[in-house]
Fold this sequence. Notes:
- The chain is an alpha+beta fold.
- Helix content is 37%, strand content 22%.
- Strands 3-2-1-4-6-5 form a six-stranded mixed beta sheet, with helices on both faces.
- Helix 3 links the parallel strand 2 and strand 3.
Amino acid sequence: MSTIDRASLRSLSGHRVAAAVSGGADSVAMALWLRAHSDQPPHHATLVGLIHVNHHLRGAESDRDEAFCRALANRLGVPIDVVDAPITPRAARSPEAAARASRYRGFAAAAARLCASRVVTAHTADDQAETVLLRLLRGTGSRGLSGIRAERGLYVRPLLACRRRDVRTWLEARRESCCEDSSNADRSIARNRVRHDLLPMIEQMAPGGVAALARAAALAEDDEQALQALAIEAVPAVVVHADTNGADLDRNRLESLAPAIARRVLRHVFERLVPHAPWRADHFEAVRRLAARSAGGGSLDLPAVRVERVSDMLRVRLGAAVAVPPFAYILAPAGEVVVPEAGLRVTAETAACPAPDTSDGGDEAYALVMPLAAFPLTVRNRRPGDRVALRGSDRKVQDLMVDAKIPRSERDRVPLVVAADGQILWMPGRSAEGLSTVGLNAIDMVTLRFRKLERT
Length: 456
């Protein structure tokens, strides 16, 4: 294996290394090579064991592979950590994807048990070419075209520069055996169709095509790293606020970025909020289209997050929109109602005060005066056709909410104060003095206090 990736091997220097083995030719050759060379200069790495994950997808054949790997570990004189991770084909939409995710969880857990600081996998140049073609056919960008990384976190892949046929030749020259995975011949699996049909055709049309695809992946990785660095620099200017529940993005600054940088800024934001969601390029394009709309407003429901345009901001919040059903609470003089939908407690105090008093420690959201003749009041959310009577005119509640820049997702939570005759007396952003009320009388006033509910 003269083309083994020397740069990757240098990254193993000084580490305790575990080799992931399936029993196939590539992983067996990798384990044998490591056992023979890892503790020699210039590598000075220590092979501390093998890791095998049994998904039980192929019945007796899966058990055969496990027994082979156990015997290999015994022959190499190293321990083996076997991870039992059954995958039920019908329980997952993509058994291959489910098995891969389960396998890497198993690798990480086994590495911890073996006290390994690096896990070596036996991906080859052919695996790289297959990955690049599959992602290219899905319309990926440079991030996807960079394919399998030679080194990423815990994982190192020294065989990425080696052709699969050369690895098998090396193994056969040493009269070493391996296990053949019968599922590799199943052409209903997309990767196998690429492996058995597309790659041979590419090699026939353009000899060296597999190696060229692997080189293209390496170049794409260089481009991706440069673009990612620029995106990280742009994040502070675009992200106005961020916490564990969401983020607020400056729409204009996002629009001013080159598309390649803007997409990566969005990926950075979304992956921090929901790291394991299946983020795709079309998700970020949809957000960019929302930001670029000439008309304000609009929203998107993406995996585990909702994005809403509010004036010049894009609000990203965890969770999809939750419908707020109609609510209505009757409030009598000297009474009190709790409005959980708005997070408020509303109290009517018959001892009127001449001006709102918010000196009670900051928990009061609003305080205002109302005529006693308007009672009983109803505290409710909006209804279709609601209008507010202003001096000399009236306006739709919907329009007032838009003017107040209340996000669409919050409008059904806004409390309205409605008189006994059905007239809307007050809504946030419109004080009682600005409304056509039923005739305020200084003798017959009631003070309404809106206090925020404590979070539990």
